[in-house]
C-alpha cells in the first residue's frame, strides 16, 4: 500500500487589515482592524523519518510572517505570500482569530473545475 505523507506546522501573528470594498452590511471591515492570525502549512514528505524537521520549517515560517504580517492583505493573499516564500509548503491556511479563514494550495496547472463549484455570485446557490 502507498501512503501520502505531510507534516503540518503552525504559527501565529498579530496583523491589521481592511477590506475597502466591503458590502454595506459588513461596512465596518472597511476600517483597519486587528486580528490574531493563525497559520498552518503543509509540506509533503516521502517517509516518516523526519525528512523535514518541524522546528526548522516553523522557524522559516515565523521568519517570513515577521514581514508578511505587516501587509494589509486578505487571508487568501497572506496564504499565497507564504507559499511564494516557503518552497517546501504545498498549502497554507490563514485564519482570523482562529475562526474564519482561507486555504490556498499550489496546483500543477490552472484548474477551472474548482472555480465552477465555488463561485460567489449567489450566496446559498450551489453552482455546477
Descriptive labels:
alpha+beta; disordered C terminus; 128 residues; 3 helices
Report what the structure shows.
The chain is of the alpha+beta class and 128 residues long. It contains 3 helices and 4 strands, in the order ββααββα. The chain has helices spanning 54-68, 75-85, 112-117, and strands spanning 5-17, 33-45, 89-96, 100-105. A 4-stranded antiparallel β-sheet has the order 1-2-3-4, with helices on one face. A hairpin with a 3-residue loop joins strand 3 and strand 4 (100-105). Mean pLDDT is 88; it is low at 116-128.
Task: Provide a concise account of the structure shown.
Helix content is 25%, strand content 31%. The chain is α+β, with helices and mostly antiparallel strands. Strand 3 and strand 4 (100-105) form a beta hairpin.
Amino acid at each position: 500500500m502507498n501512503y501520502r505523507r505531510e507534516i503540518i506546522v503552525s504559527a501565529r501573528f498579530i496583523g491589521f487589515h481592511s477590506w475597502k470594498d466591503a458590502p454595506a452590511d459588513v461596512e465596518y471591515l472597511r476600517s483597519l482592524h486587528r486580528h490574531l492570525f493563525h497559520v498552518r502549512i503543509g509540506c509533503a514528505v516521502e517517509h516518516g523519518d523526519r525528512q523535514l524537521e518541524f522546528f526548522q520549517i516553523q522557524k522559516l515560517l515565523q521568519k517570513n510572517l515577521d514581514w508578511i504580517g505587516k501587509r494589509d492583505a486578505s487571508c487568501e493573499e497572506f496564504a499565497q505570500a507564504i507559499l511564494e516564500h516557503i518552497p517546501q509548503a504545498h498549502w497554507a491556511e490563514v485564519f482570523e482569530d482562529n475562526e474564519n479563514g482561507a486555504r490556498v494550495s499550489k496546483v500543477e496547472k490552472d484548474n477551472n473545475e474548482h472555480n465552477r463549484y465555488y463561485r460567489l455570485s449567489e450566496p446559498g446557490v450551489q453552482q455546477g
